[in-house]
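Q: Hi! First time doing this. I have a protein sequence and I read that you can turn it into a structure. Is that right? Here it is:
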Amino acid sequence: MKSLFKAVAIVSIFSIITRLLGFFFRIFLSRKLGAEGLGLFQMATSVLGIFTTLISSGLPLTTAKLVSKYEVNNELKRRNQVVTSALILALGIAVLSSLIILILKQVWGIILTDSRAVELLIVLIPSIIFSAIYAIFRGALWGQNDYFSCGLTELIEQIVRFALTFIMLFTITDMFEATRNSAIAFNITCLISAIITMIIYFRRGKLKFSRTEFKPVLKSAMPITGVRLANSLVQPLTTLIIPNMLIMIGYSASEAVASFGVIMGMTFPMLFVPMAVIGSISMVLIPSISSMLSKNEYTSIQNNITKSLEVSIFISMLFIPLYLSVGDLIGIVLYDNQMSGILLQLSAVCVLPITLCNLTGSILNALNLELKSFVNYLIGSVVLFVSLIVLTPLVGINSIIISFFLSMATITLLNLRKIKKKLPNFEFNLVPILSKYTIVTIISSLSGHFISNILLHFINNFFTAIIAGGISIAITLVLCKVFNLYDLTTLFSLIKKKKQTKLKN
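A: Yes, that's right. Below is the predicted 3D structure, encoded as structure tokens:
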């Protein structure tokens, strides 16, 4: 069995490359579509996300957990039955979702307030079917610990989408035509990804129908899907609330859509950059902890969780000073949009709750506490929407930043509380750790910002951002070492369980 370190390394490498490509793709898309076109695309995909979440959240994760279990016990027949049951469920949901979108076309027009966004949503319908196939077979590969194939497929998907979109948008000058072609390119990309995962899976597995596996698949998948569905509902509801409330306080319809497109399409993706590594930890932890649970290895589980949290916090705190010091320049350099950079500076602190919310949610799922994770997310969602309604009239578009921070922080604290309840000996105190990191962040951010202001008198935005940002990160690393906030051995030894297992045997 591969060590957790090796698995995390494989997933992280692919994830970093894939996210970098996705990052540059979003820059290209934002420049080609403009703020309004990007806003329309965000509106359509936010609704689409509700339906794809029903398919691509609980079902693949459950498939991975059950496939991993049956692979270990050499129950290959049951493994094939699980994959078949999950695939039937996913395709059934996909077809139903497609019909709902078509039947409720007028309703979506009212919700999205723009007929162009509805047209894009209809164009994107084929991607739901293709995503259903891709999600289940990818879940099966995940359960087989074939992280290389999972990562390679995602990388190919990103490359194909970038290439297709570039070709289809190269000579187009009309904003909406370019946006529609981007949706078509997305459909083709999803189809290619589905075909690739099918081919890889059928090298070692096959499909076998059995009614007995439907119940366990549904039982495990439903709470996880509930969490992801609530998450997917956040964006369309935000799409409904924010632009309309901005219009109420004096924005024009075009300004409201553009502002929403900037913060959701340009600023927020930057906040999720650390997830390239932290998401890899989450992905590998789920089957790893599930396996340890079956063997009652609670000490190892606690050590895994503690080390993962420490690494996640450390990675997050490298980005916060960077964004605080040169976030305004990053927005100008990457998107040629000063507003996106200013919003990035204001929202930099959101990086930490985003990463911890994701990681602790994955830990709860691995501990078979999917329902608890769902409840915590609902509470966080209530915090989000109440904050949006109260704050938007007061602070405008900045309400998204404040509300998102409060929501993610609430969910993280509730998740940590549930982990502690499940593992009474688990000890992880955030207060002293974050107190030290706060001092580090203040010093490194102010230093980077000061250097940035000086360099701007001599060199351009691009080189200023690189130099000042690099110095900010360097100061952060030095101060973290001074405060003993990280240990390099932790970064390279996320439980090398393979050696430990051999010694026990």
